[in-house]
Amino acid sequence: MIRTARTRERSLNTPLWPANYRTGMWAWTLHRISGLALSGYLIVHIIVISSSASGASGMNFDKLLAQLTQPFFLVLDLLLWAAVLYHALNGIRVLLFDAGIGARHQKAVFWGFMTVAVLAWIGGLILILPFILGQPPIRN
Amino acid sequence: MATIEKLPQHVAEVWRPPARTGLWSWFIQRITGALLVLFIIAHFWVTHFAVPGEEITFSGVSSRLQMGFFVVLDSALLATVIYHGLNGVRNVIFDFNPGPAARTAISWVVLIIGLITFVYGVNALVPFITGSPIFSL
Fold first, then answer.
1. How far apart are CA B46 and CA B65, in angstroms?
2. What are the Cα distances from residue A67, in Å, to A59, A64, A71, B11, B62?
């Protein structure tokens, strides 16, 4: 189909335009964005671990881990945790709908799963915060 | 194509035939997605919680990877996550509707990146098992 000025103009006021997105469309969009972010993280994660373990980066594994447990990276880990939780829980929601379960109640299912995500994220925050603040629990 | 008349006007104006990414790739994306929920929980548990208070060290990971089970688990996670991640990126690119030739090219590029990433990832496990990598770059 040829895109004319008319269709471009018209397409601004449709459900396909972000300002008109509703729950399901935002869920889909965020799934894409978090998926791309996680794919980027995956590549970086593999390269960083691999190059330190194989000695290619000139930094050995233990030194790398000492770096990665600095507060700055722990804060990034909380972002990662949020992306993982969103993508995993929304992914389970998609799987359920594909299996024919719950699609009629997709908004309620979405907000239910997001409640689980927020609670799990807060759980992660509680576990990781002492390390960010430099007061890790006593180790044996 | 017969369905195009039935679409609402605002959808029909921007609608194009969907990219033929394949039913199998869709299905495997679902399977790997479900597997990843389990694998990532296992990965997280093994890395951070299995031994309370343990820091992640080369020797710690090394002694774990002497057990074949964890080598299989990590390799399975690696293969699954690479498929799911890169096929997901491919799906996103295909939603921007590249032409058939571009789709084929993109699929090959993604496949090659996936294979390289898998080999690179396995090479990250080897030093923990044998003490030195297969290659170093």
1. 11
2. 10, 5, 9, 50, 19
Per-residue pLDDT reduced to its tens digit, A45-84: 998 888 888 776 667 888 899 889 899 999 999 999 999 9
Over chain B (137 residues), what is each successive 10-residue block's mean pLDDT?
A: 64 66 86 96 91 83 92 96 96 88 93 94 90 79
Q: At what angle do helices A106-132 and A23-53 cross, to 10 degrees?
A: 40
Chain B residue numbers touching A53 (CB-CB < 8 A):
58, 124-125, 127-128, 133
**Closest partner CB to A98 (pick from B30, B52, B92):** B30
pTM of the model: 0.84
Q: Is 0.85 exceeded by the ipTM?
A: no
**Chain A closest-CA separation from residue B30 CA (Å):** 7
Specify the CATH architecture of the domain A7-132.
Answer: Up-down Bundle (1.20)
How close A74 comes to chain B (CA, Å)? 13
* A32 and chain B in contact, CB less than 8 A: yes
Q: Is residue A87 within 8 Å of residue A121, measured between CB atoms?
A: no
8 Å CB contact of B85 and A38? yes
CATH (one of 1.20.1300.10, 1.20.1250.20, 1.10.1530.10, 2.40.128.120) for B20-130: 1.20.1300.10
3-state secondary structure of A22: coil
Sequential DSSP letters for A43-102: HHHHHHHHHHHTTTTS--HHHHHHHHTSHHHHHHHHHHHHHHHHHHHHHHHHHHHHTTSS
Which positions ≥6 away from B73 have C-beta within 8 Å?
B39, B42, B43, B46
CB A46 to CB B121 under 8 A?
Answer: yes
